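Escalation from tier 1.

The customer reports that the assembly of three entities below gives different structure tokens on two consecutive runs. Tier 1 could not reproduce it. I'm attaching the input and our single run for tier 2 to review.
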Amino acid sequence: MTDTAAPIQARAGGTGWLEGKLAWIALGLVGLLLPLLDDSYIGVIAQRAYIYWVLGAGLNLVVGYAGQIAIGWVSMLTLGAYTTAALAAGNVGEPWHPYLALVAGGVMGAVFGVVVGLPALRLRTFYFAMTTLGFATIVTQVALAWKSVTGGGVGTPGPVFPWPFDPGWGFYYFCFFLAAIATWMTANIASSRFGRGLIAIRDAEVAAEASGVAKPKLLMMVFLLAGALGGVAGGLFSSLQSYITPDAFTFEMSVLFFIGILIGGRGSILGPALGTLLLTVLPEFAAPLVQWSTFLYAALLLLIVLVIPGGIADLIDYKNRRPLEQHREIAPRPELLPRLLDERRDGEVLSLKGIELSFGGVRAIAGIDLEIRPGEVHGLIGPNGSGKTTTLNVISGYYAPQKGEVRLGTAMLPPGAPHLRAPHRIARTFQTPRLIGAASVLENVMVGGTIDGQGSFAESLLTLPRHRRDEIQLREAAMLALAVVGLESLAGVRADRLQHSELRFVEIARALMLRPACLMLDEPAAGLSAEEIRRLGALIKAVSRAGTAVLLVEHHADLIFDICDRVTVLNLGKVLAAGTPAEIRSHREVVSAYLGA
Amino acid sequence: MFQSIVSYGLAVGAVYALIGITYNVMFSASRVFSFTAGMLGMLGGVLGALFINTLGMNAVLAFVLVLACGAALGIVTEILTVRPVLKSVEQHLYVLSTLAFALMIQQVVAIEYGTEAYPFPVLIPIDADSIWGVVDQKFWLPVLACAVTIAGLEFLYRKTLIGRAFLAIAEDSYAARALGLPETRLRMASFALAGVIGALAGFTGAQMLLAFIGNQAILNFYGFVPVALGGMGSNRGAVIGGLALGLFQQAANFLVGGIFAAVAVFAVFIVVLLLRPEGLAGAATARRV
Amino acid sequence: MLIKRRLVLSGSAAGAVSLATGLSAPAIAQSEPIKIGYLPALTGPSSSTGVGINRGVQLGVEEINNKGGVNGRKLELISRDTQSDPTKAVNAVAELTQRQKVAMIFGPVNSGEALAATPLIARDKVPMLHPCWVDELIDVKKYPMAFRIAPTNTQIGGGANHYVVDVLKLKKIAVVSDTTGYGTASVNTYVPMLKAKGAEVVYQNHVDAANPDLKPELLRMQSAGAQVIMPWSVNAGFLSRICNTRGAMGWDVPIVGQTTLGSGQTKALLEKPEYWNKVYSNNFRQVCYVNGKLLPKAAEYVERLKKAKVEFSDTLLWWVALGWDSVMMMAETFKTAGTKAEDVVGYMNKVKGWPGIYGTVTWTPEQHNGFPDSEVVMCEVNSLKDGAFNIAPGYSS
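Tier 1 run:
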């Protein structure tokens, strides 16, 4: 261990880069060279596929990444198509230049993307699905009724883009490049801290909040982007169709977009792109089946959901089917901690005063005072239902106590606002590990550093320097954190392939990404072997000695008494005893009620 | 005009309410909202017309058969689309699986039966001059069906053992299983019951709404509105919400007419949900960490 | 209903199979078949018209090929079911014009798909024959190769307006439509035409066809003093509800409107058969009964159809005749002018008084709408027999 940095870079880049890009390079080459076939029928089908993918790429972030069930996203296509067509045709004032009208279509899509997305912040999944469906219906109805602008049922002609993207292969390349740009931009987002935040919201919302992912703001940005892409797709669509009427925007089309993404696989860009391509092209080759196409799409969806929830992306992800080493060992290296936590900070005390919390008639916490000091490990023990995890949840802001306050140093922590804990550098792990199974271990850990990113959403969209710097820093920090917990060799592996004990250490690595002032661990030793518990203990102790206040909820009495500087015993939502391990060990009531010795 | 608003509004509201109850019965048993609710309503009408008009069955036999088909479809829904994804309810895969299933059935109906609206026979031969004929049966049938259903459900839930088992499952399925209740069988029974109620809604409402494939989407949405307004799982809320929706919609039809009625209903739906996501009568549920 | 639909479907599937076998033959040699692109809507919503026309088309092609084809070349029908979906129509147009290099395209039937397909077909310089009524489809400047073998919506509305104002002498009129493209466009065109004829439009509205209760609308018409209802919709459910509501209200005004008023679908949805009295729909003089008899030409055609065992109980004579006429027109054009686009257009520009079963067609270089105004008439909807109707009372025969 001469140079501690050396092992950290391993496996993060390397051959994986080319493997990931190869499919895109192939797709791009096919797209660029397709005009050589000189078959404009194929050209039209390809244009359609590109246009659908411009919308699909954005929708993919909403559905595949954020997990929002936006079934009626065809409404963005409708809005974009009518905006572009109506402006270019001069139905509203002077005719606009077609390219300008296309931009306006994108803006319109962006605005309504946010409007439609708003309910997603408050409504449960099924409600949101219904809302998008309802909105799609309303948009079509308005298109029918607003005759002066949309032409009503007779519709309105779509724009013809002038040189260089005039109809034919010019327009083909226009669609191709826009699809490529949409792919590039959404891939940038997907691989940024925003993309990881989205997946975290989808699969581990609680952990996302604890890591400081600001769900409302993030979702709004994504709805804005997806709406804009949908609007641009609509503008292109109106030109491809040459003439748009409300009956072109069917529910079946909406289902096609949606199913294309799910067939492709959630949390992938390549998969949904292939899925959309497949669904656009397939009916052309299966003419006799045309009337059954919606049935087949639905059947495919059912099959995907029930049999391969990972979709195409899972099928082509051969990398994650390579067997993992069987007898892996977790070998934490606490000596790297100072590098991760950089400087020794003047820690602050986390204090709870007079916390009371009841659910309905049940008093879960009946007045608890607690003080957790930096540089110390504070054990919290007690029988099941004594309020240990509930106390943790009050500190994390998941529960708002009816009485009492939580402070870090002098700052009051707002009750019931979990995503505001990370900025105070309060990190935690969960009783059952809350990880994103479909993401790699490294990505999971990087989620923990979300709030340290400097670049904006727009910067990530275009991979501007600040975004790249963020990514490099987050990646380095995450590799370091993984090295600290001894899992750097698994950085590229999907988290759901890990063993239970490894997941616990990944969660600790994620929490360490915050460089926590206070670290709360909820039964981290559960399910670990004796040797692993010993290593865990050493790690926890090292973390605290680096200046962190550690709150440890645990059932393993040995671990508690080995590493804790202070122990608080809860019973029935009250503090039964508090003191040094030695004091607790000899506390008569504790011994009889809990330790049972 | 007033009479027309009331008779029609109540009738169509009763259909919405029954579809809302269909959603609820499935939801209580499984914590799952299923897109098959509207499908059941659509099939109630289509199968009824198929049995009576095309196959020439007698109305009573057709009625029983339609309800049986509804029950069977409910069970298939449970086995095929709900049970496999139940262990990961928080991933909301049920939205996708039930949507897929509903779409498949809808497509089969579209291809095998047709996409037009077909007539539904008059079920009860009554003289227009008799007491029962004062108000057209197409208006009072759905209202009667709704009243019978809600009374039946109240009786089931309050007075019978199996009904209490249903309630126990709805309250806390984990605890219910721990008590030794056959959770899976009860859930299947609930879906069968929901199938019967959905088919009943479609069958009794079909003289008004016709045997029409387009009813699936309409009932899916308008049947869900009462659930959203009345609070999920609350059958009384669904009935009140459904009738209110029917009257509101019909009044809007009269007063502003045309497509603005649809826009008005949608606007109310969104505003209410944004202000009170748990519904007008519902209570916020505690989150689980 | 079920059984017939199945027949139609299996028929179209068989057609698709036979198409697939002849996919990649380049049409160079003189003995090669002449390819006709055909864009029907055989499945999906509003497919009954397409199904009817298709029977005429299939029969026409079959008869011509049985007689040895056109100048020794068989007709090859390359059909793509659009399901009335404009996106499918656009894809199909690209395939027919670019890959199949068809000599002419017939279709599509419905407005949305026809509006989208026409500019694209014009761009690829393929002649086309329209069965669709939407006025905008014919424009000799923009689409110099497009011809219409059917009436325009203006002619259809004009025929109905003429009957109401000039024959029935009614002046206070209610005009209603559903919210589809066809419906809204019709109302927007016909109301000014009525006003120009000096009639008073006392009610005018678009109503969602899914709305099951039309009583509010009819009450508004009644209180506005309407003497006649003119509904414009191709939705049988919507039209039947207008008839039912009028009947239930006991309101004795005529209903005058689109051909679907007389369809079997509409009839099946009536609550009482007598609600179909005093309902008059568009039809075409050449395929109507006048004094209980068809014109000799039409009568002979019906005999031929019966011999060919063409299903008639669920379709209309004019649909089948329109499909048939279109094939005959194209065959005759190819026979005289060959299959080069310019020659085809040159020939069609000079067609004059061509005696079809469905209509007498005349085109000029300036006017590609070929159907004569005088042959658009109204008929009594409750007189359906063998797919045809009695001409409405009041016309001079």
